[in-house]
Amino acid sequence: MDHKDMTDHKLMAAFQGGDVDAYTELYNRHLKGLLNFFYRLSWDRTLAEDFTQEVLVKVFRMAREWTPQAKFTTFLYRVAKNLWIDHVRSAKVKRSGGSLDAKVSKNEADSFVQMLPDEVRPPDDDIERRETYGAIMAALEQLPGEQRMVFVLSEIEGMRYQEIGEIMDVPVGTVKSRMHSAVARLQTLLEHVSPITGRKPASDEKE
Fold it and tell me: SS3 for 19?
């Protein structure tokens, strides 16, 4: 069977059996997702790339610890979560979100949009899209760390609450609570921002 047709579960089992090409497929399959995960947490492309490589190397070395009962992505992102937490603790990074009433300023939006990779950064003349992208990035930056991680895993990585809970070692109810708080905070911070689709903010629409 072609490795591309194999599930993560079968690939990991094959790798444990000595099939290095199976790991190569896992590497290629999950590289982009990990990059997105770390990038949304750090807004630092170089740091995201370094952490992604470190996680994939750790998974290579820790392959024997994976059991068939565990979903591979849960195993993978638990390693990623632990690496990020260690980084935050060692760097003594504190993300203070500030007041819930504090809106994202234009200068904040501009500074964040400049961090986007060239391939996804809106062109200079697309002012509305640049402002929207930047405002979303700045708003995510203001989320407390645990809320931000839940939001990224759910909305960026597309994971279910059950798996997020397993990754973060918390009950599903806690995941839901953090997600609810994250969404409420983002809605407050971004209530003045036009959606990327070009629709006007709800406050400008007729009742």
Answer: coil
Six-digit token string for 95: 């993300």
Q: Is the separation of the CB atoms in 160 and 52 below 8 Å? A: no
Output the pLDDT for position 8: 92
Long-range CB contact pairs, 176-179, < 8 A, 24+: 178/146, 178/147, 178/150, 179/147, 179/150, 179/151, 179/154
Both tokens of 16, joined, read: 């444990």
Determine whether 53 is exposed, middle or buried from the number of CB atoms within 10 Å of its CB (0-12, 13-18, 19+). middle
CATH architecture of 96-200: Orthogonal Bundle (1.10)
**In 43-171, which residue ranges form alpha helices assigned H by DSSP?**
45-61, 72-91, 106-113, 127-141, 145-151, 161-168
What integer pLDDT is reported at residue 177 of this predicted model?
Answer: 96
Q: Pick from 81, 39, 197: which is nearest to 128 by CA?
A: 197
Three-state DSSP at 2 gives: coil
Q: Give domain limits for the chain.
A: 1-93, 96-200
CATH number, span 1-93:
1.10.1740.10
Q: Could you report the per-residue pLDDT of 157-185, keeping only the tens digit for each?
A: 889 999 999 999 999 999 999 999 998 98
Nearest alpha carbon to residue 81 among 125, 37, 46:
37
Backbone angles phi and psi of 6, in degrees to 5: -90, 145
